[in-house]
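Bumping with the actual sequence this time:
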Amino acid sequence: MPKDVSRLPFFVGLLVLDLYLWSSLKKYVFLYHKITIFFVILLYWLPALALIGTAVSSFFIGLDQWNDTLRTYTFGTILVFYVAKMIPLLFLFLNDFFRLIRYTIYMFTPRSKKQLDDEFRNSRSKFLRQFSLITGGIFLGSLLMGMVKWAYDFKIWSHRVRLPNLPHSFEGLRIVQLSDMHLGTMATEKALKEAVKMVNDLRPDVIFFTGDLVNYATSEAFSFQHVLADLKAPHGIFVTLGNHDYGDYKNWESKEAKAENMQDLYDYFDDLGWTLLNNDHALLERQGKKIAIVGVENWSAYPRFPKRGDMQKALKGTEDIPVKLLLSHDPTHFSAEVVTNYPEIDIAFSGHTHGMQFGIEIPGVKWSPAKYMYKHWAGLYKDNRHGKPQYLYVNRGLGVIGYPGRIGIMPEITLMELAT
């Protein structure tokens, strides 16, 4: 489309990289049986064909009108294949770079042109080529497994947090936190039903959902409403908004259409009976004692994300409440504003990072590329600067976005139990 013409160099670049890698592989491919050759060629060029096909089809049917599952797995598969190709491409580029250096050096030594040509043509390392292809194949297999299995391999993370000011009547309060469902890339109802059952089996007293219900538009959530309606918690389900919930990542026909999308989201939560805390709070009461659940709109320290949260407005009326639990989608809010200006917050619940959907979490090792972008990227954190503990919990997310899978960082259901 004309408005997407700026992306043309990117697509051309992908094609050039495809041709560059193919130039190294094709002579080995043609050593096999004709049927094998056909399938290898088809598999190799499938991502490029799919990319061209989606570009052409978008002229007739806009991508936002595609079935969500079809769009997710089409672009997910394209992404997976191209990411896997980056590994042999890197080795190929480095090998050719060093070959070029050697060739340049050899040019200044007394050799015939034929000898130079033979040096350049035959010096490509067989070992590096085979190693890069094997590594790329393993990475491709892992990425595909992350899409079809690990994306919905839900994991329960349990924590018991002691709060010195917690009223004794709230001892053992069971909080389940969910975050970042991204229902636009939730492949099936079956996966979400499994997650809902796991939540209900935990017998939560209260459920927190910390934003990003959808990717682009509220309509992505409509077909899942009956599944989410099965979530049960006697003290209620409380919600706050994430950056994706505002519809900012979609080109709307008008301001009115975008406003209608936002109203659809408000109505969606109302129909479910969930309490949306937009710079507001709610009070939980047990045996005459109260704690506050405070919720703010998305607040991020990064300029590219919305900064709409208003803590003063949300906290107004909670001055005499001994314990305050904050729902704030973006964890940068905690270090940038909460711990510095609002020591009365006992625990902040966030999401947003997904743990980058990729990393390693085994006993003694916790790593993800997310740590280079977010100080707090997954799990429980503690700050004691005001003489009493303030906690932040960053949920790894229930759904996926971008790459429709997970490797090492599993989708999360958080159970937090409060204690005195």
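The tokens above came from a reply further down the thread. The chain has two domains: 2-148, 150-419.
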